[in-house]
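Example record used in the benchmark description.
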Amino acid sequence: GKASVLNDLVERARGDVVVLTDANTFFHPDAVRALVTALWRHPTACAVVGRLDLRSPVATGNLDGTYWRYETWIKTLESHFGAVLGANGAIYAFDRARYRRLPAAAIVDDFLVPMLMRLHAGGEIFFVPEARAYETSPAQVRHELRRRVRIGAGDLQALLWTWRLLLPDKGLVAFSYFSHKVLRWLGPWLMLTGFAANLFLLGSPFFRWLFAAQLGFYGLGALAPVVRLAASAARYFIALNVGLGFGFLRFVLGLQRPFWSTAPRGDVMTGTGPVERRPSGFVGRPTGAAPSSRRDAAA
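Model output (structure tokens):
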């Protein structure tokens, strides 16, 4: 699986800093420099996370791009306290000395790598908005749903391995973890519970209206090709939560494996700024990286 390969590559890396990315991601030319500089600037950091901008095909209506901008805003707030949760696999870097080997069965390695370092080796995680990368979202909602199923299974697995970060003595990290991640992961089950409970309350006019609103919302998701904007938002929200729910079930039933096929994606839309492709196995000091006697970059 990917986790075992990652463990081997980190052991072979020669520098003090490891930079990771995905094969379908494009970097701005100064992205690696910004990541390495941020690690140097924050001596308490175990990892830093760059900014990923998503470009969405028409089929997904740029809803995941909107969702990702919301995620970016949350990371910006969390970064004030060094409490960013995990990383996105497209662009992040970490102090190799603090790396903790991933279990071979790990599913969401990009979340686990920084969180296990924080838990076992100490350190903080910061967001670096000037380290930017681009990629294109899955071309169809069903591809996003399949990806969310895998992530849902990995989220539950990660929670079982990092639950100690929710203890009160972890302070703002615990608050961020619970409010940002755990409550979101509970979303599918809260939706199911609310829908089922509503069935027993139909004697009240208010709950009849509420039930009708739920039916309308879920029905809107099925009509996305017909009613564009609102339906696409409903469809994406439903796909996200259905994927999480099925992912949790697959993990509990032991059906999710630590390897998968990637969702088909369109061409990367990089906008007007210049970008630089970073292959997944790049090793050594990247061009333009900040020189430092303390840290060298290796990806």
